[in-house]
């Protein structure tokens, strides 16, 4: 039992002792804990999507998810309307929305066709695509560390997809790579737009227009879900939306480089869910490639963190 002092100076039991440990944690540690939760929620969303794709089209699943994302963002959109949609940079917004749509739709498509662990591993290629695109279009410095990390990451991807004289281990492995490239385009555009656009504008455009991109094909692809399907789609959308907001909280508490490194824990979550739900066992090439990809990304982040720390005035 933990005791505290009341207004009279007497020692009394603290009924908030279970929160005391959390309050004493550093912001980085709090951010890591929230990021662990966010990563678990996103991986669970992917597992539920893998189940849902046996009955429903990828775009219907994405549309259902975006409806909930839009609902969660609606109070902010109403508060900032119409100023939240005013922009002087329509082209970067269009590129960002296209990249986000490709990333989200191929992410669902990939888990439908590939083992959950393999799809999760190849999605990590986003880190290296971001480094390349940021160097080309944002003028970020191409250091020896970044070049080494990109090369190592590419080697890891090659180990997973195993190209050779007989072709790829599976052409389906190109789907999560396309999604990783789309996600990288979206990230680089957000970095550029965040210098001039508000959070409400960035959130509003994605909530509305990605939903429309997935929604228009519903005139031809919609399949009315039964009770189980409705519960499944609703649970997936709610978990994904919750994961998004938990992820934002993690980034607000901890440093981006620290919080970002937690993303690789999703490989463990994916392996466990793949085994329990789908009886999937990752093959040796996937495990080796995942280890190389994770090492290269963590190597890049650690070196960049040290470089930035050295540049700070003492």
TrEMBL record:
<feature type="transmembrane region" description="Helical">
    <location>
        <begin position="146"/>
        <end position="165"/>
    </location>
</feature>
<protein>
    <submittedName>
        <fullName>Permease of the drug/metabolite transporter (DMT) superfamily</fullName>
    </submittedName>
</protein>
<keyword id="KW-1133">Transmembrane helix</keyword>
<keyword id="KW-0812">Transmembrane</keyword>
<feature type="transmembrane region" description="Helical">
    <location>
        <begin position="228"/>
        <end position="246"/>
    </location>
</feature>
<feature type="transmembrane region" description="Helical">
    <location>
        <begin position="122"/>
        <end position="139"/>
    </location>
</feature>
<feature type="transmembrane region" description="Helical">
    <location>
        <begin position="171"/>
        <end position="190"/>
    </location>
</feature>
<feature type="transmembrane region" description="Helical">
    <location>
        <begin position="59"/>
        <end position="82"/>
    </location>
</feature>
<feature type="domain" description="EamA">
    <location>
        <begin position="30"/>
        <end position="161"/>
    </location>
</feature>
<dbReference type="InterPro" id="IPR000620">
    <property type="entry name" value="EamA_dom"/>
</dbReference>
<feature type="transmembrane region" description="Helical">
    <location>
        <begin position="94"/>
        <end position="116"/>
    </location>
</feature>
<feature type="transmembrane region" description="Helical">
    <location>
        <begin position="258"/>
        <end position="278"/>
    </location>
</feature>
<feature type="transmembrane region" description="Helical">
    <location>
        <begin position="202"/>
        <end position="222"/>
    </location>
</feature>
<dbReference type="InterPro" id="IPR037185">
    <property type="entry name" value="EmrE-like"/>
</dbReference>
<dbReference type="Pfam" id="PF00892">
    <property type="entry name" value="EamA"/>
</dbReference>
<feature type="transmembrane region" description="Helical">
    <location>
        <begin position="284"/>
        <end position="301"/>
    </location>
</feature>
<keyword id="KW-0472">Membrane</keyword>
<comment type="similarity">
    <text>Belongs to the drug/metabolite transporter (DMT) superfamily. 10 TMS drug/metabolite exporter (DME) (TC 2.A.7.3) family.</text>
</comment>
<feature type="domain" description="EamA">
    <location>
        <begin position="177"/>
        <end position="300"/>
    </location>
</feature>
């Amino acid at each position: 039992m933990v005791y505290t002092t009341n207004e009279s100076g007497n020692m009394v039991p603290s009924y908030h002792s279970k929160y005391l440990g959390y309050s004493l944690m550093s912001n980085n540690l709090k951010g890591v804990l929230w990021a662990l939760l966010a990563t678990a929620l996103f991986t669970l969303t992917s597992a539920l999507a893998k189940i849902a794709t046996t009955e429903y089209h990828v775009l219907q699943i994405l549309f259902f998810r975006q409806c909930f994302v839009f609902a969660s963002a609606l109070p902010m959109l109403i508060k900032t309307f119409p100023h939240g949609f005013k922009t002087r940079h329509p082209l970067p917004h269009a590129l960002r929305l296209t990249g986000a749509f490709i990333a989200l739709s191929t992410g669902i498509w990939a888990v439908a066709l590939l083992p959950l662990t393999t799809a999760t591993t190849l999605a990590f290629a986003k880190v290296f695509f971001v480094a390349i695109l940021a160097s080309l279009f944002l003028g970020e410095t191409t250091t020896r560390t970044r070049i080494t990390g990109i090369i190592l990451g590419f080697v890891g991807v090659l180990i997973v997809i195993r190209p050779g004289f007989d072709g790829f281990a599976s052409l389906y492995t190109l789907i999560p790579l396309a999604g990783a490239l789309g996600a990288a385009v979206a990230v680089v555009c957000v970095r550029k737009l965040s210098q001039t656009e508000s959070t409400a504008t960035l959130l509003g455009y994605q909530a509305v227009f990605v939903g429309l991109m997935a929604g228009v094909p519903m005139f031809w692809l919609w399949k009315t879900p039964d009770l189980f399907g409705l519960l499944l789609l609703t649970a997936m959308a709610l978990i994904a939306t919750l994961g998004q907001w938990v992820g934002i909280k993690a980034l607000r508490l901890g440093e981006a480089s620290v919080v970002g490194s937690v993303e690789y824990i999703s490989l463990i979550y994916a392996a466990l869910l793949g085994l329990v739900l789908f009886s999937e066992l990752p093959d040796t090439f996937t495990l080796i490639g995942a280890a190389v990809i994770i090492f290269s990304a963590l190597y890049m982040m650690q070196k960049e963190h040290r470089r930035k720390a050295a540049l700070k005035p003492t």
